[in-house]
Structure formats: structure tokens, C-alpha cells
Write a structure and sequence with these properties.
The protein is mostly helical and 123 residues long. The protein has one domain: 23S rRNA-intervening sequence (de novo design (two linked rop proteins)). It contains four helices and no strands.
């Protein structure tokens, strides 16, 4: 798979992740806790896709590293909001599991990509 094909695949995957976050938000209980945490999840979950698209348009190695750093932060933040929803018993573990799993997988891939780019830039 070429870099371009991988980038396109990840754009589709992050967009699908954003859609899943939007739908998850819509199904949250109508409580104040769910509203506050859910809005944070909605913001960071959709930001992953938007910022990954920006990564694909980076103009230099430094720009790539900076933008990928933002993607890593937003993905990790999304994972935090999911953990809080679960641990505060706003949502069941079963409800958050699929999004948590995808967040974790994306976070691992983006972190690896960022670390590789940093190593390569240091040469």
C-alpha cells in the first residue's frame, strides 16, 4: 500500500470515527453529566478527522509533525472522555467499548507515525 493509499484509507477511517462519535453523542442519556462530557467527546472526536485531513495537506516535515501532534492529542482526549463516561457510570462499558477500541487503535497508529516522523526529521 502506498503512502497516498494509506492516507486516503485513514481519512475515511477518521471520518467514520467522527460519524460514530456524533451518533454516540445523540444516544447519550439526557443528563447534565452526559451533556457536558458528551459535548467534549463530540468536539474531540470530530476534531480527529478534521485534523488528520490537515496532516495530509502538510507542507513540510515540521508541519507534518506539528499537525500529527494535534491529531494524537485529540485522539487521546477522545479516549479520556469515553473513559470518564464509562467510569462515572454515565454509559455502560458495552456502549463505550467500540469507540474506545477504535480510539485506542487510532492513537497507537498516530503515535507511531508521529514518533517515526520525529526520528526521521532528526537525521
Amino acid at each position: 500500500m502506498s503512502k497516498l493509499e494509506f492516507a486516503e484509507q485513514m481519512q475515511h477511517r477518521t471520518k467514520a470515527f467522527a460519524v460514530r462519535a456524533i451518533r454516540f453523542f445523540g444516544k447519550l442519556p439526557k443528563t447534565e453529566e452526559a451533556r457536558v462530557l458528551g459535548r467534549q467527546l463530540l468536539r474531540s472526536g470530530t476534531s480527529v478527522a478534521a485534523n488528520y485531513r490537515a496532516v495530509c495537506r502538510s507542507k513540510s516535515d515540521g508541519d507534518f509533525i506539528s499537525k500529527m501532534g494535534t491529531v494524537v492529542e485529540e485522539t487521546d482526549e477522545t479516549l479520556l472522555w469515553l473513559e470518564l463516561l464509562e467510569e462515572a457510570n454515565v454509559c455502560s462499558s458495552e456502549a463505550v467499548r467500540p469507540l474506545k477500541q477504535e480510539s485506542d487503535e487510532l492513537l497507537r497508529m498516530f503515535s507511531t507515525s508521529l514518533n517515526t516522523a520525529k526520528r526521521n526529521a532528526g537525521r
